[in-house]
Amino acid sequence: MPVECKNYINGQWVDSVSGRTYENRNPANPDDLIATHQKSNAEDVDRAMKAARAAQKKWALVPAPKRGEILFKVGDILRRRKEEIARDMTREMGKVIAETRGDVQEAIDMAFYAAGEGRRCFGQTVPAEMPDKFAMSIRSPIGVISAITPWNFPIAIPSWKSLPAIVVGNAVVIKPATLTPLSVIHFAEVYEEAGLPPGVFNVVTGSGAEIGDEMVTHKEINLISFTGSTEIGTDISVKAAKGMKRVCLEMGGKNAIMVMEDAKLDLALEGAVWGGFGTTGQRCTATSRVIVHRKVAQEFADRFVAMTKKLKLGDGLDPSVQVGPTVSESQLKSVHSYVEIGKAEGAELLTGGKRCTAPGCEKGSFYEPTIFYNVKRDMRIAREEIFGPVVSVIVVDDLAEAIDICNDTAYGLSGAIYTQDVNNAFVAMREVHTGIFYVNAPTIGAEIQLPFGGTKGTGNGHREAGTAALDVFCEWKAVYVDFSGKLQRAQIDDFEN
Question: Comparing C-alpha atoms, which of 100, 107, 103, 101 is closest to residue 74?
Fold first, then answer.
């Protein structure tokens, strides 16, 4: 039976003041109605933001270790509910059950990690230049965080944004992606059960067209944390600047694996298949380019195609399925439009390139895993983010050319190299201009204890996850305590005389 979901504002489950709802259906089988959600408007956002502001003032006074204890409970509850949340996520987003379990596990990991920061949140003590004076820096919460999250990681990314923000004393209003709100509804249930005070975490569902501007421009917002397209992220940055609001942007990627002539091809092929077609290619870190040395290019391409053709598509709740649907029919059409562009540009289509209608895929938005060969660096399929199961293979003559092509993109999120030469590995680590880099692993697979984010058009310099996330959600405050009993003037008085 479909679930009737409400907004979560100030600790209460409430209908939108608009009185409207919308349906959420399974992309593997549109006959499967998962839930109905509130179609919120600006008044709903206003209520949530005001609740967050009032709650944040009290929450900031709760000792950080006590905040952390609540987040430990969040981790325990998520662990208990992992299978239930994962199965609902597969239904609403489409990716296979093994991956949605991983999505929930990432939120579990982040809960425990952020909880531990409740007893850390380190500042600094430094020597003062004057006698009888103490100097230190401390972290202070920013205030109200507006979180706008995407559909491809429906609980992991909300966990990256909300858990570090909450442990350092902020309050959060989150608008989940229109296509995948149920996962965030579950997250709100977990926060509520863990005992998070009302108003510290609030959820409003609906479309960006109706409430997107309010989620960016509302007067109570201090920081906007957004994950999504570069186009929308740029628009948010412009609008936020007018209100002097901070912005943390995590946007697109056009990530590449470099396969050198000395690579272990079996390993590189496994990485290319997983990096390119895991999550149906719908990751900002997906391996959308494979840059392969000419000496092994033909063998690599032949085997890559053979492995790809063996992938099983279907409903992600079937544990034997390896590739689920695209998240929606519109996403499938977007992916196919890029395939047509690739063919028109002269790239060689080796496999895929069309909707999948195999048994089990007839009703859903399934697209065959697709490989292009002899792709040139200036082709659109080699430069623009497709966000689907399409991989471009580019042939090069040496490492220098591979690195040059790897960097020849507007984005800078993730990169990888497969090689047995440690010297080449370190050269690539140094010279590939991305925020994440892998050696002998694909471009996907980040862990929460290290910073996540990218360079160039991928982001605006901030990082999520790891201790770097605390810097996003904190203000630094320098504190000086003078116990000399007299006026001392830094940089002016010479206390030695």
Answer: 107
Which residue bears the tokens 């984005």? 411
Q: Which of 174, 183, 164, 217 is nearest to 40 (CA)?
A: 174
**DSSP string covering 234-258, please?**
HHHHHHHHHTT-EEEEE----EEEE
Q: What is the three-class DSSP state of 371?
A: strand
Record the tokens describing residue 238, joined without a space.
Answer: 């412009």
Domain at 3-251+459-479, CATH homologous superfamily = Aldehyde Dehydrogenase; Chain A, domain 1 (3.40.605.10)
d(CA 93, CA 364): 12
Tell me if 184 sits within 8 A of 155, measured CB to CB.
Answer: yes
- Matching residue, tokens 């496999």: 351
The domain spans of the chain are 3-251+459-479, 255-439
Model pLDDT for residues 137-147, shown as the tens digit of each residue: 999 999 999 99
Rg, Å, the chain Cα set:
24
Q: First-to-last CA distance in the chain?
A: 82
Cα–Cα dist 125/366, whole Å = 56
Cβ-in-10-Å burial (0-12, 13-18, 19+) of 70 comes to buried
Mind listing the pLDDT tens digit for each residue in 388-423?
A: 999 999 999 999 999 999 999 999 999 999 999 999
The token pair at 43 is 């008044």
What superfamily in CATH does domain 255-439 come from?
Aldehyde Dehydrogenase; Chain A, domain 2 (3.40.309.10)
pLDDT in tens, 108-127: 999 999 999 999 999 999 99
Ramachandran region, residue 19 (left: φ > 0; alpha: ψ -120 to 50; beta: rest): left
Catalytic residues, by residue number, are 250, 284
Secondary structure of residue 448 in the 3-state scheme: coil
The pTM of this model reads 0.95
DSSP 20-87: -EEEEEETTEEEEEEEEEE---HHHHHHHHHHHHHHHHHHTTS-HHHHHHHHHHHHHHHHHTHHHHHH
Q: List b or e across 202-216, with b for residues whose CB sees 16 or more CB atoms inside 10 angstroms.
A: bbbbbeeebbbebbb
Separation between Cα atoms, residue 198 and residue 201, nearest integer Å: 7
